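hey can u run this one w/ 6-diazenyl-5-OXO-L-norleucine bound, need the structure tokens asap thx
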Amino acid sequence: MQRMLETIVADNRALTRQGQVARYIPELARIDPTIVGIAVIDANGQLHLAGDTQVRFTLQSVSKVFALMLALEDQGFDGVFSRIGMEPTGDAFNSIVKLETFSSLRPLNPLINAGAITTSSLIAGNSVEERFQRLYEYIGAIAGPERISFNERVYHSEKATGDRNRAIGYFLRDIGAIEGDVEDALDLYFRQCSIETDVIGLATLGRRLALGPEADPPLDGEILRLALTFMYTCGMYNATGEFAVKVGIPAKSGVSGAIMAAVPGKQMGIGVIAPALDEKGNSKAGVQVLADLSRSLELAVFAVN
Ligand code: DON
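ok here u go:
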């Protein structure tokens, strides 16, 4: 396994030159674009590392999976899906266009920005601080509290420049998807995107999703099923179909260049970081690293051989 991971990282490092780090959040533009690192935790709980595994990075959109899980715990299925749809979108992660043209006037799914900002508005708590603390502890209980931290600089950088998300937030309140304070919902969303971890934390999060409800910490089986289903159908934005064909496992990307993947049938979790992104906002080298790994280990969930 070790040698295979090192070969896959080496084979794909050149791809980082074909991507670009996210520039619309100024603080993210400072990351080294040549980084490629991977952590795999296998069925026995054994950790395998290759490439640049020391680097810390923010979860960005990977956090949307856990915000959804906590919102489902707080509000139940109907409480969440009366406001947010379940359909993939062929549009960019931060697109506004379907909000006005789609007849139901709901964000299409919980993993695009519009859906995720709505999801965050559904997390319970008396203040934005308390709601964020609950989400932070929820993610920390799964990743291991020592594996996560909060990146103030990325948070302030995104909060200061996040005009498109702010536009989405106010639009969501206008159509009734969000009730209450929009700035609070946005603030929680910007904070959750700025939770920081490393590839081991990411692989630990992914592996927990691949295990049943009884593993540590215990999680509702139906909520785990929903998280994995949305990752599979919506986790890579408008490249989700191609990712399902080429890689075939539930995964969630973030504009930091992180990808968290879970392989339910094999009790495996994978964390990849490679900050140079493709034009759809997914890690350029990270996607190919996962494609190579999936082919080598036959990880695709619909493999029938
Ligand atoms: O909302 C944003 O723009 C970012 N904080 C998160 C977006 C993101 O990670 C999209 N991922 N590919």
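Strands lie at 37-41, 47-51, 57-58, 149-150, 195-197, 251-253, 258-263, 268-273. anyway lmk if its weird
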